[in-house]
Design brief:
This is Phosphatidylinositol transfer protein alpha isoform. This protein is mostly beta strands. A hairpin with a 2-residue loop joins strand 3 and strand 4. The chain is globular, with a radius of gyration of 18 Å. The chain starts with a helix and ends in a 37-residue tail after the last helix.
């Protein structure tokens, strides 16, 4: 949310169209957001010259029902040729569980699981490091965890 807020301005950046609670028939409850990312000022000038402006607009629809979250990114210019779907399960372990989405065996064979250590600063440039945003040192005032 903080990154979205910092990237908005001058017609570029992030526009929040919807941000509302949802509840599905199966009982899943969470927060639904629909955002538009306008990337014109974020790409090199030669890309702006070659690409139609509508190609530089990404729609993000997200359903956050922690611990399960689903995000779908689309581009109306590219229609069915551009779709990114991200499904995440936040599990109370160190990533040992396999096939948390219960995929069939054929689909599971195609999956590459990538473990992400959000506290690993080895790929964070020192000029980009912000101690108040470091998950390794964060402590929740509300719960006392961290």
């Amino acid at each position: 949310a903080e990154a979205s807020k910092n990237e908005t301005g001058g017609g570029d950046g992030v526009e929040v169209l919807k941000n509302e609670p949802y509840e599905k028939e199966d009982g899943e409850k969470g927060q639904y957001t629909h955002k538009i990312y306008r990337l014109q000022s974020k790409v090199p000038s030669f890309v702006r010259l070659l690409a139609p402006s509508s190609a530089l607009i990404i729609h993000e629809k997200a359903w956050n029902a922690y611990p399960y979250c689903r995000t779908v990114l689309t581009n109306e210019y590219m229609k069915d040729n551009f779709l990114i779907m991200i499904e995440t399960w936040h599990k109370p372990d160190l990533g040992e569980q396999e096939n948390v989405h219960n995929l069939d065996s054929e689909r599971w064979k195609q999956v590459e699981v990538i473990h992400i250590d959000i506290a690993d600063r080895s790929q964070v440039d020192t000029k980009d490091y912000k101690p108040d945003e470091d998950p390794a040192t964060f402590k929740s005032q509300k719960t006392g965890r961290g």
